[in-house]
Specification:
Length: about 325
């Protein structure tokens, strides 16, 4: 067994109580890694108490179970596992710090160590890929339910196995998960098919899109733009890839008006085919991967200067 699988197994074996956390604004990789872990531990170690932590529900509430309401006392007795999270500020529910011991499993660019045990592989296409690899090595029960959660996260984080960080290891992990008898057709339709209200929202998104000749496409969507479609801020922003398959767009972004945090004006998702965005994102209160970042903008001035920086960056790339 490789050392990461060994570290994982030894760490969970030490604990009776386990809390599983993931990042704020959870996406399918965050949720899939969280629920894949929880299901696998529950099925292989039924004597352990394992719960899902997080303050925000994710966007695929039909596919992933609801998170649990957890008391401080439980967390204090637990091993906290944090998945798919690059820095401590991004852990959804900072009470992970109360835990007896902490362990992180992540595939983002390394920023900082903030857990006692860390399993980080920046070359992995998804946190779910690392977890699938660990489960394959440990070779205990991996049920179709566990595999479905992990496969959904893996597929969604690699945009259907199309991103630059999709490797032969990604396909090996996918192959392992598919061998567990998962229903691909069901997962695909749950993850990829959209509701008509989302289709109508995307029509508006395209209308409101602004294109800069340097190769940047973006839209700012106020709450009056997205709320009539019954979408939350996070759901509205998750449609950034509606701009994702146009040859001329080197960088594409979607900004949605923040509703819950008063001092923040816009929350944004930045994407690119190949230009690295994380350095710029780190200066706009965010971060993430080279080609997929999240940011926050405190005022319109910051928004304008971000667009200028992205346009300058786009101008450096020639096809
Ligand atoms: Mn991820």
């Amino acid at each position: 067994m490789h050392k990461e699988a060994q570290l994982f197994l030894e760490t969970i074996k030490r604990h009776e109580f386990i809390t599983v956390f993931r990042h704020i604004s959870p996406d399918p990789d965050a949720q899939g890694s969280q629920w894949g872990l929880i299901t696998w531990i529950r099925e292989n170690f039924p004597e352990k108490k394992v719960v899902a932590c997080g303050l925000e529900e994710g966007i695929f509430t039909n596919f992933f179970p609801n998170i649990d309401k957890i008391e401080d006392d439980f967390i204090k007795e637990s091993l906290a596992i944090i998945t798919d999270t690059s820095n401590k500020e991004r852990v959804d529910d900072q009470r992970y710090k109360l835990a007896k011991e902490t362990m992180r499993i992540d595939h983002h660019i390394f920023i900082e160590q903030f857990c006692d045990n860390e399993i980080i592989d920046s070359s992995a296409g998804a946190a779910c890929e690392i977890i699938a690899r660990i489960f394959e090595e440990i070779d205990l029960l991996c049920s179709a339910k566990t595999a479905s959660y992990l496969y959904a996260g893996l597929m969604m984080d690699t945009l259907n196995f199309k991103t630059g960080n999709t490797t032969s290891n990604t396909f090996k992990a996918a192959s392992y998960l598919v061998s567990k008898g998962i229903n691909l057709e069901l997962i695909n339709s749950e993850m990829l098919n959209i509701d008509k209200k989302v289709f109508d929202y995307i029509t508006l998104l395209r209308k409101k899109m602004i294109y800069r000749e340097e190769g940047v496409a973006y839209a700012f969507m106020s709450k009056d733009d997205y709320e009539p479609f019954g979408l939350t801020n996070a759901e509205a922003r998750s449609k950034v890839n509606a701009f994702g398959s146009v040859k001329q767009f080197k960088i594409w972004c979607l900004f949605t008006e923040s509703v819950d945090k008063k001092d923040i004006r816009w929350v944004g998702s930045l994407r690119s085919h190949s230009l690295p965005l994380n350095e710029i994102a780190s200066r706009y209160h965010g971060g993430g991967h080279a080609n997929a970042c999240g940011i926050k903008l405190y005022n319109q001035q910051e928004a304008d200067s971000l667009i200028e920086e992205l346009a300058k960056l786009a101008a450096t790339e020639h096809f």
